[in-house]
Each structure stands twice: as C-alpha cells, then as structure tokens.
Amino acid sequence: MKKVVTFGEIMLRLAPQGFLRFSQANSFDAIYGGGESNVAVSLANYGVPVDFVTRLPKNDIGECAMMEMRKRGVGVDKIVWGGDRLGIYFLETGAVSRGSKVVYDRAHSAIAEIKSGMIDWDTVFEDVEWFHWTGITPAISQGSADVCLEAVKAASAKGITISTDLNYRAKLWKYCSNEHREAIMTELTSYCDVVLGNEEDAEMHFGIKPEGAAVQTAGHDVKAEAFLSVCQQMMKKFPRAKKVITTLRGSISASHNTWAGVLYDGKEMLQTRQYQITDIVDRVGGGDSFMGGLIYGLLKYPEDDQNALDFAVAASCLKHTIKGDANLVTVDEVQKLMGGDASGRVAR
Length: 348
Prior knowledge:
Layout: E1 3-7, E2 11-15, E3 29-33, H1 35-45, E4 50-53, E5 55-56, H2 60-71, E6 80-81, E7 88-92, E8 101-105, H3 121-124, E9 128-134, H4 136-140, H5 142-157, E10 161-165, H6 178-189, E11 194-196, H7 199-206, H8 228-237, E12 243-253, E13 256-264, E14 269-271, E15 275-278, H9 286-300, H10 305-319, H11 331-338
Parallel strand pairs: 1-4, 1-9, 2-7, 5-6, 9-10, 10-11, 11-12
Antiparallel strand pairs: 2-3, 7-8, 12-13, 13-14, 13-15
C-alpha cells in the first residue's frame, strides 16, 4: 500500500477517573487524541503507512503529543512547529441515563493560528494514495479552514483519493455565520471521493434532511432505509463522491448502544449487521475508528465494499471497549469479531 495522510488537530484530553463528575475530580487522566490523529493510529495498527500532519507548539506538551503518534507507528516528520499551546478538551464520561460531556479549551491553539503557506503540501503528498480530513478542522478557525482547502486542492491535483468525516461540532463553529460555514464545507466536500456523515451532519452543514419520516436514533429501532434519501441528496450535491457512508448508532443509554453502518454507491445501499454494545468503556473516537477501518477496508478490498464496510463496523465496535481516543486493535481481532466470535474469551 502507498501512504495515507491525515490532517487535523491533536489535543490533550483531561478526564476524571472512571465515571466521576467534574465537580468530584481531584485529578485528571491525560490522554492525547483528535479526529484525524485517531484515524492515523487505526491505520498504523493495521499496517498501513500513514503520516499525521498538524501544527504543534514547540514545548514539552507539544513534544508529548508528537511522541504519542510516533510510538503508535504514525509518521510525524511532516508536522510543522509553532504557536504557543496545544488544544485541550475535558471529558466527563457518562453512564446509564447520564450522557457524557465535553468542554473545549482550544482557542488560540497552534493549529487554530495556522496560516496558508505554512505546510508544503507538494512534499507532504509525495507517493501518497489517500488523504483524510474531518469537519472538525475547518471549524477551528478561518486559518485552519484555508489550509484544509489548500490540502484538498493539492491532493485533487495529484489524483489522490480524498475522504472526509463531516463531524459537525456546534461548540466549535464560532468564528463565522451559518451561511459562511455552509460555503466552507460545501467547497471542501466538493473535492471528496468518500463522504462519511450522519443525518445531523448533512442537515447542519448543507440543509439536507431525510425525506419522509425523521431518522430515529433513540432505542434499538434505527432504520437504514431512512438514510437513503440523505445519501442520494448528498451525491446529487457532490457529484465527485463515489461513496456516501453513515454509521447507525442507536442510543439505548450512555452504557448501551446499537451499532451498524450503511454505504451507498449511487446504485445500491449496503448494510452491515447490528452490534449490541453493552457496558461501553469509552465511546469517544467511535466514528474515527469506523473511518480508520473503512479506509483500510477500501484499500485492502477495493472491489468489495461490503467487506470494507463490515470491517469498519466491527473495528469500531471493538473501539468501544478501549479507554482513550484511539482504537488499539489488530486486523486479526477485527476479523475474529467479523467472523462472529464475540465471546471475549481469554486467548492463551
């Protein structure tokens, strides 16, 4: 396989231990993660050559974030250095009927203050097959949106496959109007071959809504068919897109979700089995683990979208058992679950 490149922000995650609330915490567990860095770690675990591109402050905390990527096998030599601080987010993990909470502290982070021309994309994209970004990156600042646009234009000119996870984050889009946000995301997504997003992403970014009944995401009854009109509208708006994908998460409680996925290629809609994920350890990064599995699957099985989709859902299902942002599983472990072995028995 040729190389994959992801671009975005890696942050310091600070979380109370276990299921403690912020007001109960006397200490915080420190973990590094972020949407695109999480995808990079997944791909490295599967043996795919991958570089993570970002901007980090040249201080001990920035170095720690870089070392976290390096120890996971992710290429870090294209990272640029500058700025004063690493972004932070605080996570309070929910349980049962109490949902998780996230508080961001990422204003004026190194990547929030990135500017056009700071990254040499021609060098970054040498011998690269795939480029991935998410809707989180352009939400950080106008500068990060401008650099993301530089990246997709450069990747497109080189014939590189481009993917996105639309990832709408209401708490981040503060620097521009709704109309400007839609214009930014529309231009960026127009360069993409593979688009991942749920019904909220489609509506908030592009005003696209399901035709007919609303999508039901509470409880077990999440119908894949309800997403077909969203996928069709997305492909009409973005004719370059060859595949539109969404995950199907049914939230029974904070501790019990159902999990599946669908892929639409313009002709047919493929669907996976539905997993029951009970006693969730950590759901943060679930979508990133799906995207990492999907990119791997589409590269590994270019003529078998169903197998790629099944791999992505199984990989993401396993992520919910792992503490932290990133999915630390192997291809063999994913394939074992795909084959129906969900026993969790000790491997001796």
